[in-house]
Fold this sequence. Notes:
Blueprint: E1 5-9, E2 28-32, E3 47-50, H1 55-64, E4 70-73, H2 84-87, E5 92-94, H3 101-116, H4 119-128, E6 143-147, H5 151-162, E7 166-170, H6 176-185, E8 188-191, H7 205-210, E9 216-219, H8 228-236, E10 242-245, E11 265-267, H9 278-294
Helix pairs in contact: 3-5
Amino acid sequence: MAGHTILVLNSPTARHLTLLDRLPPGCRIVAGDSAEAFVNATPEADILLVGAVSRELVEQVWSMAPRVQWVHSLWAGLETLLFPALIESDVSLTNGRGVFARSLGEFAIAGMLWFAKDIRRMRRQQRERRWEKFTITELHGASLGIIGHGSIGRAVASLANAFGMHVHGIGRRHTREEFENILQRSDYLLVGAPLTPDTRGMIGETELRMMQPESVLINLGRGPVIEEPALLHALRENWIRGAVLDVFDEEPLPEDHPLWALDNVLLSPHCSDNTATWLNDAMELFLENYTLFAQGEPLKNISDKKAGY
């Protein structure tokens, strides 16, 4: 197995990078979080391994590395990598798709249970030391619509099926009629779509008004897929019952953002996939893909650069 030069765009002191020691002895690893760190290695670079860095740095290093054959993102989202030069190139682009799905699936179920069992009311009554029985609902028999039936959607669907929910979903190719149907019939609506030019703002006021008053919207994809001003209006005016949000237009969410104060919102600081093992899992995926790359075999998680995921 021939060695390769791998540029790791990440803090060089990150603990998970020690897993790269398992690469073949002939591999040259250069890690850094500035373009200067790669100056002496870019002419021979074969692979870019991209962690938590800016799009500007990725573009800069890319422009310095004419021999790169493969770019891999530890993350599932590709927003920082979809710049024109890479999109139009023949270079393979892969990502961490699937690494986060199990945890995101559990968070989606937790959010649905939070509303079904009215846990916010339980907590409120506990604080007030008030014993007052009330009616709750079950997930069993409820309808779950999934927009974006990728690894996240499949993970949620698997768990939802175990609860006895009625699951239906749409992927990239769907008609407007199918889209509206899923909005109208879902008790819980999961948005797991990636952010692309086609999905940006795909759920706005018109779509939110189609949902049932008792519906709960769950966004685990990307914030801008849902028009935030329209969502705020829908939540304040009770067009829908509530929302479970892990992603937002602006992150970190500003302290004065109105979403913080809404009682019918369960929000996470984009950490529903931040498990203790995700970085190791993501690195294991890269190492597995490296073996395939070195053997000339097809890579896992090849992304459609023009489609955006």
